[in-house]
Amino acid sequence: MGSKTVRGSDIGRAARGIIFCLVMLLGAQSGAMANTHGEDVASAVKRTRFVIALERQTTFQVSSLSHPNRVVVDLPDVVIGLPAPLKDGPVGLVKGFRGGLAAPGQMKVVIDVTQPVIIEQATLEPASGNFGPRLVLEIVPVASTPKANDKVFANARIGSAGLTSVQPPLPRPAAKPAERRAKAFKPLIVLDPGHGGHDSGAQRNGVIEKNAVLAFSLVLRDQLKKTGRYQVLMTRDDDTFVPLDERREFAEKHRAALFMAIHADYAGSSARGATIYSLRDNRARDLTRSAVGEVTRDLLTDTEIKAIKQTAAADASTIRGFLADLAQREVKSTTTRTNLLSRSVIEYMGDATNMMSNPDRNANYRVLQTVKVPAVLLELAFVTNKRDAANLKSLEWRRKVAGSIVEAIDSYFNHQVARLPM
């Protein structure tokens, strides 16, 4: 039977430990047993063992509560695995269990029980073989006597009370950090080296823009991938021409977490330094109308859209207003993320190379005209400036500036806004 995983913190914490939760529900009862009043005491002679397999030694606190009856296990902020929920009613004293983050830095496992119970014993057993330590809880009814408990526990065995159908898998050895990082979620970054093919871009001082920005993008791609934290795609990785709209649509199609177009600038020989562009606010607002239609298509089927058109005008107006609000939120969210990304790039890139005096700018470039993906266009340097041109031809400069952009992207994704679902 499979198990489900409950995450105790954001997915980016690669060094976080893992807890696998194994439930061994051992119960036995004697229907023939009766107390001095002739009452059936089967429910009072159950014992249930709950085992949590731990990857490492950790602190814990266990308590039993009533109204409703339950056992609560408090652990540090970790990732836990719980078996599939019980589907055929209680097993032993346990009728259900769940786990999750109860507060920052605190994970809680709640075991729902059929009657008031006490924790007779909570033992942290040492690691053995390929497995780590285990937290073993002995749960018994409040009304049970020590003698009855001893007798029932001695007769208990796995498989009693139909337990073979609910026994979850044994915990696996802890995965190595590299294996956990490989399976972790990685934001997708699309790099867009400008021009290509018959479109050479700006040329001066021995620099051809299409070649310079591709060489830089390849260095940036390799450094991003080397971190192990990101997926990276490129609109082109050779001397190929890609139409402007296809570059933007490529990022949208792949649901990129961010889109970065990379160019080199052209001006008078005195102009020098890097500049970063984002979409002008007025153009972003203009895109809201088309976003309403796209939100409608994403949320409603053709049949539902047809039904809306046949609805009374007042109701249809409410629905249209709701969809418009969703679209406006999408535009605002993308704009906020884009501004955050721009500021981060300027901050870190400024430590690695010269920036223009006012590097944070707005423009209506076609590749930036999207409300689905945080998008920026980066002008690395001026081909018309001899010192900038020399930098564009320098592998050492590319590596240094690419490293600063990696730091900027790391800083961007460490921000809470950037980690929210798109």
Folded structure, characterized:
This protein has 422 residues and is of the alpha/beta class. The chain contains 11 helices and 18 strands. It has helices at 146-155, 177-183, 209-227, 244-253, 281-286, 288-299, 302-309, 313-349, 386-392, 395-413, 416-419; strands at residues 3-6, 18-22, 48-54, 61-65, 70-76, 79-83, 94-103, 106-113, 117-125, 134-141, 188-193, 203-204, 207-208, 231-234, 258-265, 274-279, 355-363, 375-382. The strands form 4 sheets. A 6-stranded mixed β-sheet has the order 1-6-2-3-10-9, with no helix packed on it. The protein has a 6-stranded mixed β-sheet with strand order 14-11-15-18-16-17, with helices on both faces. Residues 1-45 and 147-170 have low confidence and may be disordered.
Topology:
Elements: E1 3-6, E2 18-22, E3 48-54, E4 61-65, E5 70-76, E6 79-83, E7 94-103, E8 106-113, E9 117-125, E10 134-141, H1 146-155, H2 177-183, E11 188-193, E12 203-204, E13 207-208, H3 209-227, E14 231-234, H4 244-253, E15 258-265, E16 274-279, H5 281-286, H6 288-299, H7 302-309, H8 313-349, E17 355-363, E18 375-382, H9 386-392, H10 395-413, H11 416-419
Parallel strand pairs: 2-6, 11-14, 11-15, 15-18, 16-17
Antiparallel strand pairs: 1-6, 2-3, 3-10, 4-5, 5-8, 7-8, 9-10, 12-13, 16-18
